[in-house]
C-alpha cells in the first residue's frame, strides 16, 4: 500500500464529494430500471404471480455482482470504472433480490424492509466490533472491503423494499415517495453543514436513503400511467442512465479517499 507524504494511505473507494452522490443516485436509479428490464420485461415476472422471473433475475445479477466485487478486491488501488460497475451491479441485484423476497416469497414490503434494516444494522455492528471503524475511508484491505460490500448489498436491497413500501403501502405513489426520500436527504445535508453529528453516521444514513430515492425515481420513469409512472421503456431509461453515469465518471473528478496511516 503506497503511503502519501502526509502520512495517509489511499482508500480503494472514492472520496465522498458532490460528484460521488450524483453518480450514486443515478446508479441506484439504473439498478431499478435495469433490474425491472430483465425480470419484468424479459422474464415477464409479475408482482402478483410467482413465475420464477425474480429468482432467475437474481441469479443472473448475483453472478455479475460477485464477479464485479472480486475484481474490485483484486485491484491494487482505486479504479473508478471497477468501483462504479460494482456499485451498479449491487443496486441491480438488490432490486431483484428485494422483489423476489417481497413478492415471490410473499414477505411483503413491510416485512422485507424490517428484516433488511436489521441486516444492515447487524452488518455495520459486526464491522465495527471486528475492525473498530465503519468509516468508508478505511476501505483499503480485503477484510474491510468484504464488510463494505456486504453492508452495501444489504442497504441496496433494503432501499428497493423501502421504496416500494413508501410508494405502494403509504399511498404516496412513486413521485411522492421520491419527494419524501429527497427531503430526508436534504435534512441529512443540513445536519452535515450545520451540526457536529458524526460524519460516518451521516454518510451511512445518506448512502442508505439514496437507494430508495433511486428506486422510486426509477419506478416513476418506467411504470405505467395508471400506476403513477411515465411509462418510459425500461431499456430506454436504463440506456440513458448508463450514458449519464459514464459521462459523469469521465467528467467529474474521481479520486481515492484518504485516511490516516496505521503506521
Q: How would you explain this protein's 3D organization?
A:
- The protein is mainly alpha-helical and 263 residues long.
- The chain has one domain (9-255).
- It is built from 8 helices and 2 strands.
- It has helices spanning 18-42, 53-74, 80-104, 108-131, 142-169, 173-194, 199-222, 234-251, and strands at 8-14, 256-260.
- It has a two-stranded antiparallel ribbon.
- Helix 5 (142-169) packs across helix 7.
Largest sheet: 2 strands, antiparallel
Q: How many individual domains?
A: 1
In helices, the fraction of residues equals: over 70%
Low-confidence segments: 1-7
Q: What is the strand content?
A: under 5%
How are the strands of the biggest sheet laid out side by side? 1-2
Tell me the span between the first and last alpha carbons.
11 Å
Helix and strand succession?
A: EHHHHHHHHE
Number of helices: 8
Mean pLDDT: 89
Number of E strands: 2
Shape: globular
Structural class: mainly alpha
Q: Rounded to an integer, what's the Rg over CA atoms?
A: 18 Å
Amino acid at each position: 500500500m503506497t503511503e502519501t507524504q502526509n502520512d495517509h494511505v489511499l482508500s480503494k473507494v472514492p472520496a465522498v464529494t458532490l460528484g460521488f452522490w450524483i453518480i450514486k443516485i443515478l446508479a441506484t436509479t439504473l439498478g431499478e430500471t435495469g433490474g425491472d428490464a430483465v425480470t419484468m420485461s424479459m422474464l415477464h415476472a409479475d408482482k402478483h404471480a410467482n413465475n420464477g422471473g425474480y429468482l432467475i433475475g437474481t441469479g443472473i445479477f448475483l453472478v455479475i455482482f460477485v464477479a464485479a466485487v472480486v475484481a474490485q478486491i483484486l485491484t491494487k488501488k482505486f479504479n473508478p470504472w471497477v468501483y462504479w460497475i460494482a456499485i451498479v451491479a449491487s443496486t441491480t441485484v438488490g432490486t431483484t433480490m428485494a422483489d423476489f423476497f417481497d413478492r415471490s416469497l410473499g414477505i411483503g414490503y413491510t416485512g422485507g424492509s424490517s428484516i433488511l434494516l436489521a441486516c444492515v444494522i447487524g452488518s455495520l455492528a459486526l464491522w465495527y466490533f471486528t475492525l473498530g471503524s465503519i468509516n468508508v475511508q478505511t476501505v483499503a484491505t480485503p477484510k474491510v472491503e468484504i464488510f463494505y460490500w456486504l453492508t452495501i448489498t444489504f442497504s441496496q436491497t433494503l432501499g428497493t423494499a423501502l421504496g416500494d413500501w413508501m410508494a405502494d403501502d403509504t399511498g404516496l405513489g412513486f413521485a411522492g415517495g421520491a419527494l419524501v426520500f429527497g427531503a430526508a436527504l436534504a435534512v441529512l445535508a443540513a445536519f452535515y453543514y450545520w451540526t457536529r453529528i458524526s460524519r460516518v453516521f451521516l454518510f451511512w444514513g445518506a448512502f442508505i436513503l439514496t437507494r430508495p430515492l433511486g428506486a422510486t425515481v426509477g419506478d416513476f420513469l418506467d411504470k405505467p400511467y395508471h400506476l403513477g409512472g411515465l411509462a418510459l421503456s425500461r431499456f430506454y431509461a436504463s440506456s440513458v442512465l448508463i450514458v449519464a453515469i459514464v459521462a459523469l465518471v469521465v467528467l467529474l473528478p474521481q479520486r481515492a479517499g484518504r485516511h490516516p496511516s496505521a503506521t
